[in-house]
Amino acid sequence: MKGVEIIQDTSKKPRYAIIDLNILQDLFDDFFGALMASGQTKGVDFLRDEKGNIVKARIDLNIHQKTFDKFFSELIVKEIDSPITITPDLSRASREEKLNRLVLAARSFIGTPYKPAGDSVLGTDCSGFSFMCFKEIGVSLPRTSRDQASIGKRVDASELQVGDLVFYATGSDPNRISHVGLIVKGGGRGVARMIHASSSRGVIEDDPFSSYYAPRFISATRVV
């Protein structure tokens, strides 16, 4: 099927599905949205081209075979004859599509080392990470966490949604914003999850209201 490559294991069973996002972006957005809703996004990796753009997704079929079949089997059965030309236009994409791509971008950076003032796959700081993620969906953020906190709509900590930015005072001044994270699972305390660039661990998924971050929380905003 055009846009999907199936990789087999040594026993000839399907192991991975490689999705070309230039061809099947809309369908993948639906698939990934279903995974986000269930909280089961482990097993999806993202591949970049030489310019650093996300171009493909690799799905672990040992984990996501059932969901993969639900969204992609119809195309496989039809054995599409004509070329599919889907070119995502993020400026006109729905909010849900943008948020799916935002989370996709955030997860693709997990494991990136921390680098002060960095904003690349080679190393990034907290605001560089959020800057890069929003850039992937065509949104230009300010470069520092304090400036990022000044844009968007202020939201309550108990009503966080995917795509919201959360801000903290992690420095010596308890009133000065010095850290930012990106919410990838909505909800309040004990439910929400964020991805951020930790100075000690690099880009990781974390609890935005952990024992460390809860007392340092300052505000949250919604940009998209």
From TrEMBL:
GO molecular function: cysteine-type peptidase activity
InterPro entries: Murein_DD/LD_carboxypeptidase, NLP_P60_dom, Papain-like_cys_pep_sf
Record keywords, A-Z: Hydrolase, Protease, Signal, Thiol protease
GO biological process, any: proteolysis
Domain NlpC/P60: 96-224
One Pfam family this sequence matches: NLPC_P60
Endpoints of the signal sequence: none
Gene3D superfamilies reported in the protein's UniProt record: endopeptidase domain like (from Nostoc punctiforme) (3.90.1720.10)
PANTHER family: ENDOPEPTIDASE NLPC-RELATED (PTHR47360:SF1), MUREIN DD-ENDOPEPTIDASE MEPS/MUREIN LD-CARBOXYPEPTIDASE (PTHR47360)
Family to which the UniProt record says this protein belongs: Belongs to the peptidase C40 family.
The protein's name in its UniProt record: NlpC/P60 family protein
